[in-house]
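User: I'll paste a sequence; please echo it back and then give the predicted structure.

Assistant: Echoing your sequence first, then the prediction.
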Amino acid sequence: MRHHSVSIPARFLPRHAGRLHRFLLAALATAALQAYAAPSASTVDEGARAQALLDALNAGSDSARVAWVDTYVSSGKREEVAGRLAVIAREAGGLTLTRKRLDGPIDKLYVRAKAGGSSRIDILEDEVDASRIGAVFSFPWPEPYPLKMDEALAKAGGSLARAIDARVRFSAERGDFAGTVLVRQGDRTVYSHSFGLADRDLGVPNAAQTRFNIGSMDKMFTAVAIGQLIEAGKLTLDTHLIDVLPDYPNAEAARAITIRHLLAHSAGLGNLFDRPKWERTRDYATVAALLPVFAAEPLEFTPGSKGSYSNEGFIVLGAVVERLSGQSWYDYVAGHVFAPMGMRSTGSPGLDEVAEGRAVGYRFREGDPLGTHGRGPNWTFLPYRGSSAGGGYSTAPDLLAFLAGLREGKLVSPAMAQTLTALNTGGEEEYGLGFMHVAKGKRTLRGHNGGGPGSGINAEAMIVWETGDAYAVVGNLDAPFTQILGSDIAELLVAAGSRQADTGR
């Protein structure tokens, strides 16, 4: 899926999601790739098929849904699809189409349910017979903005601030965004505003200094720590893990894995939160204390052979930082990454610690395919503490201070910053070494996002490397609600920068 852009963009995939949502989207990814690879001889009118599905879901009868299934779905998949459609119809109470994308292997219907909530329904072609349907999935999804970003900028008279404000309020007013948006062009703040509540029970509003869970964005801090240790002469990108952690539980894996593999998500390690030995509420005092949860297990693939997003790889990197520095990862990044940039509100407080300004995350529960039941607090989802792989807390100003300092050579040398953030073709797509790398025309956005469906966590901060323009969108709702908003702000920021360059301003 990621390589062919036929479904959810890579940057909207879960980074810190619950098991059911990871399973659902993994199945979606597999089906998408299979559908893409299958010979397509379909002559089906996709528009008619999609409309027929909406009509069947809105008909209020089992017979209408069964007729659609019998007409369009592969025989071996009918029972499963019929079951999903029955749940969707029951939960929705009627659907209104807001947008659709019919692009071959996956037809995407963006809808609003009469019962409340916006969502997306994906209709996947069968992997063997492209003229038939193999699966139907649905999940909460923000209502699409009605304008393209170049149109939005033009409608705002070329004012970046007005265009951003209109875009953000569109989502906030529909309950699709709660959090803070901060946008800068160089040293100038062009937009700073907060929406929604940090704590619904207490009525505390979100604010510029609200601390949001940033999910996987801690990976940037870990990558910089590794970069600092490289520049201190303590290792290289091609150092093998066995040379740093000679007592690593899987010696064969440690001999094959390099620091570069770990940073690029190509080491063959997996997802920490699926391991039976992982204890969600345990206070792991150091990152290295997490290694027994997974490190002795066989690798999922040969290191360097492909990329697969891995939280475990960054746990291992955190343990490397601890071994080489003689400090816990928490203390090292506090002193060497956060303090130099004045990031006083960034860290990894435990669930039972008093953390002033910490926002409560609000998540859609598992088994709510359309988001019709509203969101509840995510305390029972969160691990006790964040780690070198993610789960810490930060603010929009802190995140932009970090990205600016990185680009300006205040944390590592400019050459090392370029090495870490440049596109790496041997691992995760649209990724460097601990940083996302997204091309927007002649510009590149570098930074990270975090969170996942059903998590109550979603944040994103990116800097336009060529200009220094940057944005942070941090929120306390599920992915991809904040990330989609961030993607649109990125389009606006790059478009506005291009306009200024064209006019010589």
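Residues 1-42 have pLDDT under 50 and may be disordered. Residues 214-481 form a domain with the Beta-lactamase fold (CATH 3.40.710.10).
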